[in-house]
Amino acid sequence: MKNPPLIFVTNDDGIDAPGLLSLIETVRDMGEVVVLAPENGQSGMSHALTVKDVLRVHKVREEQGLTMYKCNGTPVDCLKIARHKILDRQPDICLSGINHGSNSSINVIYSGTVAAALEGAMYGIPSVAFSIHDFSMNADFASKAPLIRKIVSETLKNKLPQDVCLNVNIPKLPGDEIRGIRICRQAPAHWKDDYVEREDPFHRKYYWLTGYFECLDTAEDTDEWALKNGYVSIVPVQVDFTDYPTIDMLKNWVL
Amino acid sequence: MKNPPLIFVTNDDGIDAPGLLSLIETVRDMGEVVVLAPENGQSGMSHALTVKDVLRVHKVREEQGLTMYKCNGTPVDCLKIARHKILDRQPDICLSGINHGSNSSINVIYSGTVAAALEGAMYGIPSVAFSIHDFSMNADFASKAPLIRKIVSETLKNKLPQDVCLNVNIPKLPGDEIRGIRICRQAPAHWKDDYVEREDPFHRKYYWLTGYFECLDTAEDTDEWALKNGYVSIVPVQVDFTDYPTIDMLKNWVL
Questions:
Q1: ipTM score for this prediction
Q2: What is the pLDDT of residues A80-91, one digit of tens each?
Q3: What is the 3-state secondary structure (H, E, C) of A149-186?
């Protein structure tokens, strides 16, 4: 009998996040699950990796078909060190999430959740990042299980190209009110940042990042449109950042 | 008389890095220079931003035409907070670097130097990241000044499209042995990682990331080829990570 699929799971909200635990329970009967997640929350860590400090890994749970580890690194560190020091073979799939908060549109650039999946793709592992458009610790993850299982199952069956992962975003709706799954492009958008300025008790200034998200593209093929209209969005994400149209423009510069 | 250009400078190696100081001296007579750089090294921080902690900014130097600040955040934080709390108008150009070590090929994904420039581009500022293929603190930056000035001058003159920055990598050669400047695409490549495993004095295991870089693409239009053959590479970098060819493939999945 063929071995069950080896399912690697990580996230950026940390080893205790309800979204991670829900993802584990959702896929647990689909294979052997190994988890290595950050010991602390790593939101907004993007594709950061630890180069000037050491990593430590601790086993935190071991049961039939499920082993969980935590580590002091970033989501990308978790993927890398798991592959080299924890997993004895290439996983059949890498899952990252479920992130508390969406990672649609330009948020992909700041997301540790998507970065871990993208690093998985760079290792040649079919990889999927899951995020839900709900920051609450009590977000309704459970009703999304059938949708997530469908995406995991199709990814296991079809694989993905080298260096391409899936960025899945789920709207804040009960599972049976979600209208379906749409394949999308990343919506162009910007954050309109601001900083709240305060004084600490020693009269020294400090700043908190704040702001709002602005997407002016209203086309129906973006992840933003899908989420706003009750669909799960799937954007395939890749690692070549070259802006090809600008190459021609630059050839006219005097360099 | 028109105001001199407002030149914003940051980096990821931190406020004391020779590469930053060299970049400042290189462009100082081209405009008014404002620097806001991380107080500590931030190598490998990618597009990370500080969301769960506060930022503090301190002025460290003020002279005719040059003001320098440091902050406790990432390179991307530096760009954002400078724009909102330090600069009273949109800079004419944002420069990031000079990074100690190249950021060619897939390294763009881990680079805080490029991330700061890309964040600048998202703010609509013509932005350029500079890196030199030499990790040494004593790297020869000075002989590269004419090349850097040419790129800065052309960027000031021609501007750049919204959401597109330039990723400039300079080979480890004396300035007068550099064969020229080439406009390139990002070379596809991978890191072949490994972790060195050690024991601390308390017999607890820890790991250091190590590994080597592998680029199998030998075409002459990549940044890797340019660097290896004695040219400065310029890759225009953008923020849409969508893998468009995979969108069609995914439409055949049963979702």
A1: 0.95
A2: 999 999 999 999
A3: HHHHHHHHHHCCCCCEEEEEEECCCCHHHCCEEEECEC
How close A159 comes to chain B (CA, Å)? 10
- Pairing assessment for the beta strands A205-214 and A231-238 based on DSSP bridges: unpaired
> Using one digit for the tens of pLDDT, what is the confidence trace for B4-20?
999 999 999 999 999 99
Query: Per-residue pLDDT for A35 more than 70?
Result: yes
Q: Tell me the CATH class for B6-187+219-250.
A: alpha beta
Phi, psi for residue A208 in degrees, rounded to 5: -115, 130
Q: Does A51 touch chain B (CB under 8 A)?
A: yes
Q: Distance (Å, rounded) from C-alpha A47 to C-alpha A112?
A: 6
CB distance B47–A51 less than 8 Å? Answer: no
pTM: 0.96
Per-domain residue ranges of chain A: 6-187+219-250
Residues 157-216 of A with CB under 8 A from B: 158, 160-161, 163-164, 166, 180-181, 183-186, 188, 190, 193-195, 197-198, 204-209
- Say which amino acid occupies A205: K
From chain A, the residues in CB contact with B106 under 8 A are 122, 239
* A97 and A135 Cβ atoms separated by less than 8 Å: no
Band the pLDDT of A1: cuts 50, 70, 90.
low
Cross-chain Cβ contact A240/B51 below 8 Å: no
| Contact predicate B215/B224, CB 8 Å | yes
User: Which residues partner with A233 through β-bridges?
Assistant: A169, A182
The rounded percent of chain B whose pLDDT value lies above 90 is 96
Q: Report chain A's mean pLDDT, rounded to a whole number.
A: 96
Partners of A155 in beta bridges: none
Choosing among A213, A225, A243, A254, which should be mutated to test the B contact, i.e. which has the most B CBs within 10 A?
A: A243
Candidates B24, B108, B95; CA nearest to B66 is B24
